Amino acid sequence: MGAMLELHNFQYSYGNIKVVKGIDLYVNEGEMVTLIGANGAGKTTTLRTISGLTEARGVEGEIIFNGNRIEGMKGSRIARMGLVQVLEGRHIFSKLTVEENLLNGAYTRRDTKGIEADLQKIYKRFPRLLERKQQMGGTLSGGEQQMLAIGRALIANPRMILLDEPSLGLAPLIVAEIFEAIREINREGTTVLFVEQNSKIALTTAQRGYVLQTGHMILTDTCESLLHNEDVRKAYLGEE
Ligand code: ATP
């Protein structure tokens, strides 16, 4: 058995412009891995391509999930296989209630009882969503929207989740709360890959990390080692 997720010589181009230039990456079952890098490095493109959210014609190389080639597949099919991306908080449905938004994430499932049980689990993890279950999605705070986005991915009962900058636009206290929730979700068995521009929180949360620079993977190691790496400290942690 290989890793749960593997990228081999993965490349992505928008038209003639190649923005990811042949990278290798793997995530083992049960792991929490982060992909860091500066603005425009290609992190979002990589994540969205894994989830099937970019155009298939831009993809080269292999993406393997649980032994199956998935590059170029439609996102809904990939989600049904158990690999689900947490959509950005601002992409939740503003005119649906919190509960309707959550149930909408269960579109890949038919087991009503299982869905109800998972809904209660999500309310237990995020009591603020329970308190606000009849409130419109659009009226939630940024942090609550991020919780709802995570809940919406979890209700699909995924084996692995992908998150694109969970800290974006949130106050430090809320960021800590969101990352604590992600850590717990991982502890309970869901494999996690997340992209983050906040390298400090990324490297103190995940177990292993990859550093992407203008489409090339320049470094990978345990987060512990990356935190002590002088180049990483200078370029990504803002230290002299
Ligand atoms: P950020 O954190 O700023 O989003 P990133 O590392 O996630 O950075 P990407 O968003 O993947 O980087 O962008 C990588 C490169 O691809 C950038 O140069 C960007 O301008 C370009 N790019 C992204 N989306 C498109 C698109 N739809 N069409 C053309 N070019 C794009």
TrEMBL record:
Keywords (A to Z) from UniProt: Amino-acid transport, ATP-binding, Nucleotide-binding, Transport
UniProt family annotation: Belongs to the ABC transporter superfamily.
Claim: Transport is one of the keywords in the record: yes
Gene Ontology terms, MF aspect: ATP binding; ATP hydrolysis activity; branched-chain amino acid transmembrane transporter activity
Lineage per the UniProt record: Bacteria, Bacillati, Bacillota, Clostridia, Lachnospirales
GO BP term, example: L-amino acid transport
UniProt domain ABC transporter: residue ranges: 5-239
Name of this protein: Amino acid/amide ABC transporter ATP-binding protein 2, HAAT family
